[in-house]
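Problem: given the chain below (321 residues), write out its structure.
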Amino acid sequence: MRRAKISIIGAGNVGATCAHWAAAKELGDIVLLDIPEKEGVAKGKALDLFCAAPMERFDSRIIGTSDYKDTVDSDVVIVTAGIPRKPGMSRDDLIQTNVQIVRSVAQNIAKFAPNSVMIIVSNPLDAMVYTAWKASGFPTHRILGQAGCLDVARFRAFLAMELNCSVEDIQALLLGGHGDDMVPLPRFTSVHGIPISMLLSKEKIDACVQRAKVGGGEIVQLMGTSAYYAPASGSVQMAEAIIKDKKRILPCAAYCESQYGVANEKGKGYFVGVPCILGSGGMEKVVEIQLDGDEKKLMDESISHVKDLVGAVRKIFPELA
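Solution.
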């Protein structure tokens, strides 16, 4: 039986950590790819990780490269390439640079791994998922964005810290975009089946939600660079669900039209953060839940911001409209 293959585009902190988590879970063979100027970094990190295989007991084959030919027959491609937003840089500046990067990546993946499922991690996420979709020509069920898994994990972690209980016993759900666009759903949050509202006050729950919203910024303040352990873990969680056909329900940036009132007509949808069933077909179903008035208002605001981001992409790059 053919071993699964995972290609990771971008050998920076997030990309290299994706390779680490994927190898530790022995999900398949791994290709760590970066631009030719950073090929040595990709090869060095791949070799260093493979040297851990005898001790950690995984048999994944790991290579570093700058050649997209090495991504042939990939089952999943995780795209982490792009630059972080820097002081003084506008949103449009970031979009202009990263759209060009992600567009090139997506076109190469469409050429060399046309049957793969792409998981986008690059920021601004909603704009980059849209870019990858348009540039690759992939069907919408094989394009996903990773942010929801990270946000939910942070929320669960902060609740566990507040309750002094195991993170494994906490189930939670968040919708919408990343950060300020997050739509908290405390009424769908429980601890081993016990509603969170029976265990914590509204003020403490709200504080955990707010900390999850700004969790990335908190980490940047502490260590001067963006988070990478948890974002990579969220990406690999999605990859594992696809490779193993687990049919897991995970929050992802997925293509919606009628779901959650995203679009008024067919073919005019957007990628927004919603719970999805992930399996061998990629995004196999959007799980739609009934929102109350306040939740619906927040979700509509989040969707509006997604549309603004996509509008900025279309304005700067009309060919992606």
